[in-house]
Amino acid sequence: MSLAQKLAEERRARLAAERLLELKQAELFAANQKLGRHARALSEEIVSTRAQVETIRNENQQVKSDLNVAHQKVEIAERRLWHSIETIQDGFAFFDVDSRMIAANRAYLSVFDGLEEVAPGVHYTRILQLMTEEGIINIGEYDPANWRAMMQKRWETPSPPAVVIRLWNNTYIKLIDQRGHGGDVVSLALDITETVRYEKELKEARAKAEAASRAKSAFLANMSHEIRTPMNGVVGMAELLADTPLSREQQLFVNTIKNSGEALLVIINDVLDYSKIEAKKLVLHPEPFDLERCIHEIVMLLQPLARDKKIDLLVDYDLFLPTMFVGDPGRIRQVLTNLLGNAVKFTQEGHVLVRVVGVQPGDSPDTHIHVTIEDTGIGIPADKVDHIFGEFNQVEDERNRKFEGTGLGLAITQRLINLMDGNIWVDSEYGVGSSFGFRITLPATETISDVAPILPERLKKALIVDDLSVNREILAKQMEILGIETQCCASGAEALSVLDDTFDVVLTDHNMPGMDGIELACAIRETGSDVPILLFSSNSTYAEMEAGKQYLQAILQKPTPRRELFARLQALGADIDAPEAELTPTVLPDDRLMRVLAAEDNRTNRLVFSKMVKDAQIDLRFAENGEEAVTLYRDFAPDLVFMDISMPGMDGKEATRAIRQLEKTTGHHVPIFAMTAHAMDGDSEGILQAGLDFYLTKPLRKAEILQALTDHRPDGALAPHLPPEDQAALAT
Ligand code: ADP
Q: Does one domain contain both 37 and 135?
């Protein structure tokens, strides 16, 4: 090989080596760079890890110090808890799941004073054993083994019932043990010695108070009996004396005796009722009764007084509310009499209106009854409204001072309503009038469909004539509910001017200024119209209306019971359909005297009774004892019996039982009224149980007897004669 070739070869080899070198250098550079980056990343990672380690170290330190603080707090809380547990007077201990004591406070351990064994670690069974063996517990007649077995059994139940134990020193301890989730038991031993002593004292005091209250009730019962019996003589004789010829002065004396006697009786009754309510001795006697009738009877009693004062007494009884309910009619009557009596007493002009509405929720017979008694009387000053329900509280001002009363009526009324689970309230404006209202819930014994009337189809439009707008409103409302269109007039003259043949009936008031109801009826007939006319009158005797009767279809007593109004309207249908039919007579032609038997052993009382009914035109026979009463019942067949209860030999209850026995063969039931001087509760029950239907308390009042006669007159017997002054006597 030539030199040149060699040189060229060498050069090529050198060039190749140089290129390789370059390549390797580039690779080395790249590797260097990569290494540099890696080293940087690594050092960054180290820095961040270091920071993290620092943070964790800090946090660790915080946790450690928090733990320390928490530890201290727990220690303080535990110390305080134990301190408190040690401080309390009652015993406190913990037991573990195996019934070994974990800890107990001083009070717990003090019971076992001197017994070193009772300390943490002791078993509950051993504690029980020590209690009986060392005489720590007073188990009375109990056998120690039995007692321990009983206590052990109790301890083992999941939640042991509290138990009271008595220690040797008469300390009473109530043990309350509670088992925790893990089976631990917390045991509390409460010292209830004071409570037991107090309870014993209370029991003794209560027994004493009950004995005193019984003594008071017995005293009241006796007092009422003792006062009532002579009062029968005083009031009865005064009533009889008033019927004899007397000089004006003597009349005044007699009336004063009678009124004072009756006022005294009202006071005795009020005080008696009030004491009974206070002694929680007053019990309600629920029985079926007719609420509407009850209201109307009270209104009738007050009617003469209201008529004298020229104020109207009105009743607006919800047309679609049942009237038969179960409640204590005597007490409901007492409430109504008091509220209505007050309304009439404190009203000088205008009217007194009783409104009754009610709702029957769902299918339940329980009816919420809402009664309001509104008057246009003297009203009550706003600052006295709350005061009047208090006992012996009356509004004292110049308007009020002239009225009599005990101030107990509303206190009793409120308590009676509360006893019936109801409530009572009053709205009043001084000088304008008052409205007393109460709400009670009573079960109804009939449904709305029993009371809703079906009226004659042709009765479509009525003309209502009354000078008093409230009256017109009530009647119009009632008619409209029944589907009858109405037009109202305030006077007879106005009625005549609007009357045409579109009216199917005229409902007119009797007493109106200018043309009265009878004059209006006469004037209507003179126009040739034969539209049926119903007259509403608050006069209790029909005699004065005899003349106008020929123009009228019916005369209705005002306020009119709903059934009566429905019956009259229904009867009109018959009249319209058969115009030639006879007018409905208001009093049936009866031809025999009513037979009345009165059993009474006391001569004076027989005299009083016979004088009281002397004008009533009845056939009266007396029996002087029970046997005679039974014999007379058989021979005389009375329509009504008045029966004295306490008679020598066979008393009133026995005689009644005998009569009821006899009646089983005839199937006829004669109404029997008990006459009794007992006014306390409980008496009435015995009387009613013996088969008597009603009872009158002595002193008997003429009005009550006459009312009984009227209420129980059988068909075919002459109506007992009721002179207007006897009606007036009813209201006083
Ligand atoms: P009494 O009527 O026997 O005084 P009450 O307890 O029934 O006792 O009534 C207490 C008082 O409440 C009455 O004396 C009277 O001042 C007032 N009062 C009661 N009802 C009415 C009423 N309708 N209008 C005005 N004042 C009345």
A: no
Least confident of 161-175, 431-445, 694-708: 694-708
The alpha carbon torsion through 91, 96, 97, 99 (nearest 10 deg) reads -60
Looking at the structure, do residues 532 and 507 belong to the same domain, yes or no? yes
Q: Ligand 1 mean position to 148 CA, how many Å?
A: 68
Structural domain count, the chain = 5
Q: How confident is the model at residue 731 (pLDDT cuts 50, 70, 90)?
A: very low
Give me the pLDDT at residue 630, please.
92
Q: Would you say residue 565 lies in a domain? A: yes
Do 613 and 711 belong to one domain? yes
Mutate to test the pocket of ligand 1, among 345, 374, 394 (most ligand atoms within 8 A of CB): 394
Q: Model pTM?
A: 0.53
Both 135 and 56 in a single domain? Answer: no
Of 176, 191, 206, the domain-final residue: 191
Query: Do both 382 and 505 map to the same domain?
Result: no
Of 593 and 414, the one with more pLDDT: 414
Ligand 1 center to 310 CA (angstroms): 20
259 occurs within a structural domain: no
Please name which of 145, 114, 140, 117 lies closest in space to residue 129, comparing C-alpha atoms: 145
Decide: 527 and 267 in contact? Cβ < 8 Å.
no
Question: Measured at the alpha carbon of residue 295, what is the angle toward residues 558 and 700, in degrees to the nearest 5?
Answer: 100
Residue 203: inside a domain: no
- Do 438 and 298 sit in the same domain of this protein? yes
**493 in any annotated domain:** yes
388 lines ligand 1 (CB under 6 A): yes
The answer to whether the CB of 352 is under 6 A from ligand 1 is no
CA distance 321 to 580: 35
For residues 457 and 440, membership in a common domain is answered with no
Query: From the alpha carbon of 379, which atom of ligand 1 is closest?
Result: 25
C-alpha span between 524 and 352 (Å, rounded):
31
Two tokens, residue 195 = 């409570």
Distance 354 CA to ligand 1 centre (A): 17
Q: Is 433 in the pocket of ligand 1 (CB under 6 A)?
A: no
* Nearest-atom index, ligand 1, CA of 408: 6
Q: Rounded to the nearest whole angstrom, what is the distance from the C-alpha of residue 410 to the centroid of ligand 1?
A: 7
- Residue 228 CA, ligand 1 centroid: distance in Å: 26
- Determine the atom of ligand 1 nearest the C-alpha atom of 433: 24
The pLDDT value given to residue 577: 45
Of 355, 339, 356, 335, nearest in space to 347 by CA: 339
* Cβ of 305 below 6 Å from ligand 1: no
What residue numbers bound the domain in which 637 lies?
594-731
